[in-house]
Design goal:
Distance between the termini: 22 Å
CATH architecture: 3-Layer(aba) Sandwich
Strand content: 15-25%
Strand order of the largest sheet: 2-6-1-7-8
Radius of gyration: 17 Å
Number of domains: 1
Low-confidence stretches: none
Structural class: alpha/beta
Largest sheet: 5 strands, parallel
Length: about 220
Amino acid sequence: MKTIAIDGPSGAGKSAIASALAKRLGYEYIDTGALYRTIAYIAVREGGDLSTKELLKRVDAQSIDYKDGAVQLNGEALGDVIRTEAISQKTSQLSKEPAVRDYLLSLQRRLAEDGGVVMEGRDIGTVVLPSADVKFFLTASEEERARRRYEQRLAFGEAVDMETIKADIHARDERDKNRAVAPLKQAADAILVDSTAMSEEEVLDTMVNYVENGHVL
């Protein structure tokens, strides 16, 4: 069984595609972004202007695991509470911190060590699993990613503005691409999949075909 890495910018649909790909292949889906979001959730819940050292001390006092396709905090699945815009922004900020990345790196590698996993994030193919059997870089235009995020926020019942979403997507792209530690970039051996004009099913078929046959449709 193979180890599959999927990287890409915010709003590209990595989570949905990785989950569907894992189900199609009979693999385990691991959303590494959810692990980062969990730390952001703890930071926001704890409140105050915590130092990274203090935050990780509080995180270490709790139990973070991944079971049945969902991250769990102290034995309970967090669900959509880690998918709000506030958590997204905090996650992007914390993911720049070397100490936070180091804290989660060993956990991510342990989860993938036996293969048969689809792991997605922003530095999976370049840093976390550089020897992954198959690597994809999933992206879409900023405009399309903003539209998808806008509809997602509406579905969560949030009051949102399209122009604000566009600005946030652009700002997050810049932070992720330009951070000093593990910046977002396409691995040299990753297959580029631009989903701007593709349906989720078309993206999925493209990836499955590559995993099984070694070439894109």
